[in-house]
Design the sequence.
């Protein structure tokens, strides 16, 4: 565990999550620094998505404490919690776009609910967000079922960014994209992080993303963080899973 | 949190400076929008306007866009407008929004008379399409049934038994309960009104004929349409949405044979059984009320029932059941396969599965009534 970080935007302490008799997370500690892109890796089924969902409050934990923006989410009142929720954006693995709303309505939905602004501004902001994620305004009136996989991810990212959050959670943002599309997406996350000053918590399996997009990497194993640090630290690590992950055939191909 | 945003106007000789301060973020978007709209009216009053953003403590997409919008609208008004004092942190953000195309795409227009007429025309034409779709599905199911008869190994027994459990066995309690209550009500109403003429005992005739010929099967069919027809549509619809049906097809399986035939068969077997159980429950309920409320003791009831009804009444009722089941099943499957990609579409098709199912059941009942009347049954 990397030591205490003073300006941590997410602070996770001794989190334990259990499904039936299987303990998925076991006394896990993690800090995410303001303004960084944290890549979160681990073997399939290790509980990466579970940790994300626990932090955002979709999965109940049996022990531990989670602070986001310095607010203890368990002790927070409903209003405080809403305040926190307004300041984060979440990109779900499958996009989770509302299937009965158009792209336009999907992106405008959170804005419309939280802010009383004119339809004109809503439309302009929607076009701006679409532009930021690299989509043309013409897709605005399509339904999610009429979009390709990559476009769904981009629209979902635009929706996650709709309220200009300070923190975004990306759950496997590049899975299901072709390598070029995935590369573009990494680039996009990098650019947005720079322009909007975002903090990004990214669950990923994509070695390219780790190399090109992430500032820091945390590795999950046996319900704990087994390593956290820069890509160099990861490559230097002697942990068997890390050695295999960062020195396997695919890793060599990426670094090649 | 940094303070509320402001936009001060400071004259600098011939030029005007608009000094933005505070946090220009989404939180303050409604205020910002009003301030910018006010400032946009300055267009044309001065040759030069600076938008000074050096005092802005926080900027996000909303703020950056509104500043950009102000600049554009002043420029359109013939003013030399410039953004000044942009800090390095925010310049990339402003560059980003600068690329936004000014005119937002227009939304589709509202309701018009021609549009409404077009809608009516389309729905009328849609009725024909619906009928063709149903006949198409009937043909496909019969063809699949014929293939299975020739090659019985293709028959999915496990699946059929599973669906039989779902639509028949698990439906028994609710079907029996409701038909029992309806039997009670018919009997009570009959006794109440027939008593005026001293004809209490005729309630047995009415109950027997009504339940066996009409109410038993019709009521059960409507319940099955609501209970199982909707389930079929929702199952097939969500399988369609997740491309499961396409997956089956690409593996060389016929979705009609794998998914629809077992469901249809289960329904066609289930409805006669449920109709029979329902009719018995209704007769039992009616008999109970006749005894407790009308004073017709069970022996007299059974004796009268034997005289009042013949096997024909029972046959007329039960012969309708498999046909109604087929209609419900076909409507449900056609609707299920018509589901498009959205949750809303799934809801619409499930609704229309139940509505159309019940409608066709009642139409079929009418057709059968005419048929049996003309052959004198």
Sequence:
């Amino acid at each position: 565990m990397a030591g205490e970080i003073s300006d941590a935007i997410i602070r996770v302490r001794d989190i334990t999550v259990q499904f039936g008799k299987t303990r998925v997370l076991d006394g896990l500690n993690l800090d995410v620094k303001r303004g960084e892109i944290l890549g979160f890796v681990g073997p399939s089924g290790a509980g990466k998505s579970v940790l994300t969902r626990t932090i955002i409050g979709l999965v109940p934990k049996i022990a531990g404490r989670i602070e986001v923006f310095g607010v203890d989410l368990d002790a927070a009142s409903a209003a405080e919690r809403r305040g926190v929720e307004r300041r984060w954006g979440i990109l779900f693995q499958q996009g989770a776009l509302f299937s009965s709303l158009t792209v336009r309505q999907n992106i405008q939905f959170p804005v419309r609910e939280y802010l009383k602004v004119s339809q004109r501004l809503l439309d302009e902001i929607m076009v701006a967000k679409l532009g930021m994620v690299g989509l043309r305004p013409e897709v605005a009136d399509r339904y999610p079922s009429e979009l390709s996989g990559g476009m769904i991810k981009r629209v979902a990212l635009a929706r996650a960014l709709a309220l200009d959050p300070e923190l975004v959670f990306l759950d496997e943002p590049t899975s299901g994209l072709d390598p070029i599309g995935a590369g573009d997406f990494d680039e996009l996350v990098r650019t947005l992080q720079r322009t909007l000053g975002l903090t990004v918590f990214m669950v990923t399996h994509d070695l390219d993303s780790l190399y090109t997009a992430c500032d820091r990497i945390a590795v999950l194993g046996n319900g704990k963080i087994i390593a956290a640090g820069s890509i160099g630290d990861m490559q230097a690590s002697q942990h068997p899973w890390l050695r295999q992950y960062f020195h396997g055939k695919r890793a060599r191909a990426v670094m090649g | 949190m940094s303070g509320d945003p402001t936009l001060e106007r400071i004259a600098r000789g011939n030029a005007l400076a608009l000094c933005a301060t505070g946090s220009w973020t989404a939180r303050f978007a409604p205020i910002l929008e009003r301030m910018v709209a006010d400032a946009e009216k300055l267009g044309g009053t001065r040759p030069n306007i600076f938008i000074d953003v050096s005092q802005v403590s926080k900027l996000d997409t909303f703020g950056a866009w509104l500043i950009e919008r102000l600049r554009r609208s002043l420029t359109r008004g013939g003013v030399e407008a410039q953004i000044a004092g942009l800090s390095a942190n925010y310049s990339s953000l402003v560059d980003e929004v600068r690329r936004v195309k000014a005119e937002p795409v227009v939304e589709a227009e509202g309701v018009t008379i021609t549009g409404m007429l077009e809608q009516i025309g389309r729905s009328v034409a849609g009725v024909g399409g619906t009928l063709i779709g149903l006949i198409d599905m009937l043909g496909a199911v019969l063809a699949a049934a014929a293939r299975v008869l020739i090659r019985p190994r293709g028959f999915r027994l496990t699946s059929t038994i599973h669906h039989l459990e779902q639509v028949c066995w698990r439906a028994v309690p609710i079907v029996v309960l409701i038909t029992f209550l309806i039997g009670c009500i018919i009997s009570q109403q009959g006794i109440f009104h027939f008593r005026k003429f001293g004809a209490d005992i005729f309630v047995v005739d009415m109950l027997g004929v009504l339940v066996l010929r009409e109410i038993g099967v019709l009521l059960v069919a409507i319940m099955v349409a609501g209970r199982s027809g909707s389930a079929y549509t929702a199952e097939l619809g969500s399988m369609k949405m997740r491309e499961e049906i396409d997956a089956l097809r690409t593996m060389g399986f016929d979705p009609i044979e794998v998914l629809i035939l077992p469901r249809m068969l289960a329904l066609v077997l289930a409805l006669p059984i449920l109709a029979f159980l329902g009719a018995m429950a209704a007769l039992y309920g009616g008999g109970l009320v006749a005894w407790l409320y009308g004073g017709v003791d069970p022996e007299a009831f059974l004796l009268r029932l034997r005289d009042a009804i013949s096997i024909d009444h029972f046959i007329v009722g039960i012969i309708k059941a498999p046909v109604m089941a087929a209609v419900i099943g076909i409507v449900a499957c056609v609707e299920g396969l018509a589901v498009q990609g959205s949750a809303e579409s799934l809801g619409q098709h499930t609704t229309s599965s139940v509505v159309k199912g019940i409608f066709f059941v009642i139409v079929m009942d009418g057709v059968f009534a005419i048929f049996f009347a003309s052959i004198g049954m």
User: Anything to note?
Assistant: The longest strand of chain A covers residues 8-19. Residues 179-196 of chain A form the longest helix (18 residues). The interface with chain B takes residues 98-100, 104, 111, 114-118, 120-121, 123-129, 131-132, 137-138, 140-141, 143-146, 161, 163-164, 194-197 of chain A (CB under 8 Å).
